[in-house]
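Let's practice the habit of predicting before peeking. Look at the sequence and jot down your guess about where helices and strands might fall. Then scroll down.
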Amino acid sequence: MSAVTAALLYPCDPLAPRRVDAHFRAEAAEARALGADVALLDHDALLRGDVAEAVRRIPAGAGGAGAGNLPAMAGQRSARAAPVPFSVAGG
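Done guessing? Here is the structure:
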């Protein structure tokens, strides 16, 4: 069984999906400087109901207690499934 680590989730930039959205970039940089793991959530994909795409950039094992393995769970969920229990930093 792999270890589960906590990660702060930030929305990705819609025009540069490998980067944190500009509105949260400074906060994410500060969190990284303090040693926190930062992962990207595609908010637009989440609104479309494409959970697998929304969590694609969240590393396996990230999420902390209660969230489980979000990327693996996304493959098993439909757009109508109950929401995955996690928090989006700043949101």
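How did you do? Residues 4 and 25 are 25 Å apart (CA to CA).
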